[in-house]
Structures are given as structure tokens and as C-alpha cells.
Amino acid sequence: MTEVKQVLQQQMSTAWALLDYHVQQWRDDDLFWEPAPSHWTMHQVEGGWAPDFAEVEPLLSRPPRSHG
Are 43 and 53 in contact (CB under 8 A)? Predict the structure, then answer.
């Protein structure tokens, strides 16, 4: 069991080091980019955060079907 624990600790250590490495390189514009015009997101408002979404969900097209 000790060997399994050591392997898991090493994997967690590696994952944490990679996350830390990449997070340290983030800039403000990496955090506030917008994927598309009029996308749904969250906005900071007085006293917290508020969702920005349509009151009525848009009608989506049907999924493609295969004819076979």
C-alpha cells in the first residue's frame, strides 16, 4: 500500500507543479477574454456576481441523424 501512496503523491505533486507553472504565466486578458459576441457569462455586480443569460432559452436545431 505504501507504494501506491507514493505513486499517487508523486502524480499529485507533478499535477500541482504543472498547474502552478501555467497559472503563474496568466495575464489579466487571459482571464477576461470573451469567446463570442453576446455569450452567456457572469458579471460582477454590487454585492457579488450575477449571471448574464437569456430569459428564454434559444431554440436549438435538431441533432444530426444518420440515415443508414
Answer: no
